[in-house]
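Here is an idea for our session: we take a single protein and study its fold together. To get us started, please write out a protein record for me. Once you have written the record down, we can walk along the chain together.
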Amino acid sequence: MAVAADGSTLITPAYWAEACKTLAKRDRVMKRLIPQHGSACLESRGDAFTTLARSIVGQQISVKAAQSVWDRFAALAPELDAEQVLRLRIGDMRAAGLSARKVEYLVDLALHFSEKKLNEADWTAMDDEAIIAQLVAIRGIGRWTAEMFLIFHLLRPNVLPLDDAGLIKGISHNYFSGEPVSRSDMREVAQAWQPYCSVATWYLWRSLSPLPVAY
């Protein structure tokens, strides 16, 4: 475990070392990328609401912009949990840089947690697709956001977010010399990553930016 800048505990995956060893053995790009990042690895903040909220804030904007908006949003309350979000004023949330739609999504997410509509206790036993189906029923959460949740909160090892712009760019840059790639190209490349697609995806994100992706 590690500690984040905000004082929260970060949880790291037990499978990371084995995943790196497997990926480096099977994939020439991973063999090159993995040693470049030392002991850094995927980290979970251990809080489902925060992870989903950060994913909503980060939709369709850069990692840097998302962090900037999140910092302003988080400054609105001492502990940004579901109950606190429901107490915030819409104008203050908009002033933090959130669009009207993202404000609506965050309020709906907070209501789901406040009213205990999500079966958090069941997630451990549920497969990835079942969890995705439950999450996409919430306004503002599509498949991409649900996949980020699987990776960053539940630390699921084998998630392949085919609609993620960073993954698309990472595969294009590292495997196809910058040429456009199709979903079938991505799936073909990812065959060598099984059962650690989440780990390979994380390293491709890092290949594009030294700033670790975090939700």
